Inverse folding.
């Protein structure tokens, strides 16, 4: 950006660099606040007004999400430019493509309305705070380089000296002193002004106490669901063990005991009982294996999400393209949730979709694990109808993850799932 | 025949040693972790190794990795991998150097002693022993495809047993039909799938597995 013109020391260079940077950032905001903010505000109001006649139902989500994009850009800039963290206040996106339900989700979220209020406030505030740093610098420089000299030739003035003609030498001296003071003040306080704008934005774009209360409610709910789900899971495991492997082992030891008794007198029956015992042990092992797979697939422990998803794809009766780009490992619970989410979606593909092929894409971007499962089947999957999909949605929600399903009749079905997570040590 | 065994659970390790010795194998070394397995394989050069997939220190797929590493140093070193669960992914990795002498079985299969010993001998002789579960997965995966649809149920059964690595004689014994009938089936299968016929049992198995995409 700007170099330290005419300033000898590093502190000066840094002052000019930061000041010019702030001036440029301010100008960006000054342009954006009215030029993007006002049209978006007008469009939002119009599309909201059109909801009663139907068009708005489709239009409003588009404009409101565009507003969110602009607001998110402000959140990112506040953090990047001024170190002001502005958390996201929005409610989690529902896993539905039903336009009315999506509209409801947007309209019921107070953050949507605060976004619109922000557009209104930001138009003048962003313009003013944005222009100030650059204006101070430019006007200050003008006070040194242009005004005092031009003022001698034509009717002209600068700052308090208006017109300069009337002030004579005092005017020139005043310009030469006040100009630099103003320019340096612009450079010195530019970053502070940018930060002030970020703070104004935070006051409207960060979650309110109400939103925090909402978040607590949401966490309480997902926690309760998680606790319920794991209790149900434990009950299922207990039942499976009790009725399955355990019962078979009892039968097995009975058979072996009987065979032991019969060994001398009736070796033929004893041999038969032993053969039965062996097949019972085989069945018990198969059941245990299936049970283990359902709790935590061994290949997931051995190879992580990458290998486990590839192994899963290979075991399906249809070709599955797998693209995974995750440079590291997520926490074990997140990996397990991600694996079972993908597995459930693939099981649905096999069971319901009549697809000829499917594909999986997993990547990690900006602290989120993104998983997309698609197929070329008949579509018409409804997350609200299947308990499997709802279960996965709940399981993901426990990690603040989300799921979105698009599945028009006739296909294709695409399920997009996101899990916030950090990655540990990169893959070897 | 000289065998190296890798199994971390003492109970199973002793069981395997007892079983193999009862059938005339000489267990030259029994280890319980990955690094010593690689050393044992490279130093002892056994006729065959029986290896558990999951071993210390990581308790992940240490045994599998050790087996693959040893085979990179000694190509074709016969290794029979045992596991509590079978994955096509692992089968594919084991078979990838297509030099034979590979077995991959569920641990449960050990309970059918004569079949298990047969599998160990087959692997030692450079053959293949692939678990029926893996083969079943391979077959379901390709089941909808044209050439496999053309096979009769009997031929599909024979194809499955071939993919497991069985010889004609073994398949005949299993299905209670003559060896001649089996070779008729195998010829039909090879024609229908468009594979070049081969008299060599091991090469035949590898061709079938390559066809099935293992």
């Amino acid at each position: 950006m700007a170099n330290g013109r005419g300033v000898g020391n590093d502190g000066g260079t840094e002052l000019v660099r930061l000041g010019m940077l702030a001036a440029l950032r301010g100008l960006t905001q000054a342009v954006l606040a009215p030029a993007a903010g006002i049209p978006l505000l007008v469009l939002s109001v119009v599309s909201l007004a059109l909801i009663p006649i139907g068009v708005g139902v489709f239009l409003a989500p588009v404009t409101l999400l565009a507003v969110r994009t602009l607001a998110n850009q402000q959140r990112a800039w506040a953090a990047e430019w001024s170190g002001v963290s502005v958390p996201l206040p929005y409610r989690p996106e529902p896993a539905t493509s039903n336009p009315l339900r999506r509209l409801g989700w947007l309209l019921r979220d107070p953050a949507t309305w605060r976004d619109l209020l922000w557009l209104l406030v930001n138009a003048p505030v962003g313009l003013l705070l944005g222009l100030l740093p650059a204006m101070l610098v430019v006007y200050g420089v003008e006070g040194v380089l242009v005004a005092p000299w031009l003022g001698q030739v034509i009717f002209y003035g600068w700052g308090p000296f208006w017109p300069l003609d009337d002030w004579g030498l005092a005017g020139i001296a005043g310009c030469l002193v006040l100009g630099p003071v103003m320019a340096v003040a612009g450079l010195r306080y530019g970053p502070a002004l940018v930060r002030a704008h970020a703070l104004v934005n935070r006051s409207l774009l960060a979650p309110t106490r109400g939103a925090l209360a909402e978040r607590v409610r949401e966490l309480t709910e997902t926690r309760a669901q998680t606790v319920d789900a794991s209790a149900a899971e434990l009950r299922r495991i207990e039942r499976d063990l009790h009725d399955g492997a355990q019962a078979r082992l009892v039968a097995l030891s009975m058979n072996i005991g009987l065979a032991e008794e019969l060994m001398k007198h009736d070796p033929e029956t004893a041999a038969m009982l032993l053969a039965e015992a062996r097949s019972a042990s085989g069945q018990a092992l198969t059941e245990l294996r299936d049970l283990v797979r359902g709790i935590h697939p061994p290949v997931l422990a051995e190879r992580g999400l990458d290998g486990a998803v590839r192994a899963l794809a290979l075991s399906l009766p249809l070709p599955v393209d797998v693209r995974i780009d995750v440079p590291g490992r997520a926490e074990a619970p997140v990996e397990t949730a991600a694996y079972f989410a993908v597995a459930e979606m693939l099981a649905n593909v096999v069971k319901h979709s009549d697809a000829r092929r499917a594909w999986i894409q997993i990547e990690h971007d900006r602290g989120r694990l993104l998983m997309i499962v698609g197929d070329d089947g008949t579509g018409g999957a409804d997350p609200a109808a299947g308990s499997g999909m709802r279960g996965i949605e709940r399981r993901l929600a426990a990690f603040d993850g989300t799921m979105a399903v698009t599945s028009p009749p006739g296909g294709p079905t695409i399920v997009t799932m996101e899990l916030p997570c950090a990655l540990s040590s990169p893959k070897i | 025949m000289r065998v190296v065994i890798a199994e971390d659970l003492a109970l199973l390790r002793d069981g395997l040693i007892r079983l193999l010795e009862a059938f005339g194998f000489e267990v030259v070394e029994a280890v319980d972790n990955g690094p010593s397995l690689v050393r044992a394989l490279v130093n002892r050069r056994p006729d065959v190794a029986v290896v558990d997939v999951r071993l210390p220190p990581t308790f992940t797929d240490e045994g599998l990795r050790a087996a693959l590493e040893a085979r990179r140093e000694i190509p074709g070193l016969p290794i029979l991998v045992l596991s509590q669960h079978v994955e096509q992914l692992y089968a594919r990795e084991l078979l990838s150097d297509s030099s034979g002498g590979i077995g991959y079985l569920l641990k449960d299969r050990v309970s059918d002693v004569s079949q298990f010993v047969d599998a160990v001998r087959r692997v030692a002789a450079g053959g293949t022993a692939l678990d029926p579960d893996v083969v079943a997965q391979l077959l379901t995966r390709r089941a909808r495809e044209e050439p496999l649809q053309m096979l009769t149920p009997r031929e599909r059964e024979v194809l499955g047993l071939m993919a497991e690595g069985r010889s004609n004689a073994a398949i005949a014994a299993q299905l209670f039909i003559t060896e001649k009938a089996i070779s008729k089936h195998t010829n039909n299968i090879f024609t229908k799938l468009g594979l070049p016929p081969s008299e060599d049992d091991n090469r035949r198995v590898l061709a079938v597995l390559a066809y099935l995409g293992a």
